[in-house]
Amino acid sequence: MVDHFVDSLAGLSVGGTYGFAVDSAWRRLNSVYHSSGHLIAGLVESLQHGLTAVAGHQWPGEARVEFEGQAEDCSFDGLATELSRHLGELLSKPIEVKVTGDPYSSRAIQIGDFPPIPCGGTHV
Predict the structure, then answer these.
(1) How far is 21 from 35, CA to CA, in rounded Å?
(2) Where does 29-82 show beta strands of DSSP type E?
(3) Distances in Å between the alpha carbon of 98 and those of 15, 58, 63, 67?
(4) Which of 19, 22, 85, 121 has the fewest C-beta atoms lying within 10 Å of its C-beta?
């Protein structure tokens, strides 16, 4: 099932059939944001073993990843610098992005060597 948000219900009826078009540039931008959230989550978890990504919201202008747990002894600036350096290294070469599991019951996304994460979102 796919939810669609519309500005108005005028002219729409329950059970009706309607055509639509996908804005490929907008979809691509959002898939990059979404996949980047997974990449950042996996990298932070690998750098800070006490943190676990528990939620994310990756829309242009509103992107974030939320973590739970206890960060190892480091400053925010130190972690940001380390994260930036590692992201630069990872993004300097192609990274495999693959879907694992059953797409209808146990779909997960795996980016590079990071563990798969259950997700039904749109990815690059």
Answers:
(1) 23
(2) 51-57, 64-69
(3) 35, 19, 22, 23
(4) 19
